[in-house]
Amino acid sequence: MKKIAFFTTIIASVFLVACTQPAEKNQTVESTPEATAQVEFKDFGPEPFVFDIEAYTTQNETYRTSIWTGTYMQMTVMSIPAGGDIGAEMHSDIDQFLRVEAGSGVVVMGDEEDNMDFEARVEHDFAIFIPAGKWHNLVNDSDEPLKVYSIYSPVEHPHSTIHQTQAEGIAAHEAEHATEHGH
Questions:
Q1: What CA–CA distances, in Å, run from 49 to 76, 79, 116?
Q2: CA of 103: how far to CAs of 56, 147, 181, in Å?
Q3: What's the pLDDT at 178?
Q4: What global pTM score does this model have?
């Protein structure tokens, strides 16, 4: 029993010393070609796909581009220009997740389009969960593009969606829903 206690003490001491030693001051981080490489903007779904989500999000220059569309889920990247917004919208049967990778703004949500009584500031590394049936908008109140990625479940946009501008996105949405309702 004394041997086990002795070895446990030794191992704990080594671990404690290793974890509390200051880092060397002249450490350098090597930049890999993969970290700075340009990404290919296309919809890779529904095939398995592993990628640098931050690189895709921050390098995106379009209002909305789908990166992966599966049967039950979709991921898009968005770039909201300074002073712009996503536009008030509500997805009756879609839960949505947004993550801010660059920029800052304000997200609003509510049960009615004219009464979005929930408001929060968001910036780099913030996540936003939007329940199905909630009206919402994300407003870029900064002087730089707001770079976000969005995950929809179930899928919201057609496979390979690319909207260069918000106006193009709104027109496409209206056309899709007109078709659904026989117009």
A1: 14, 22, 36
A2: 15, 6, 37
A3: 78
A4: 0.77
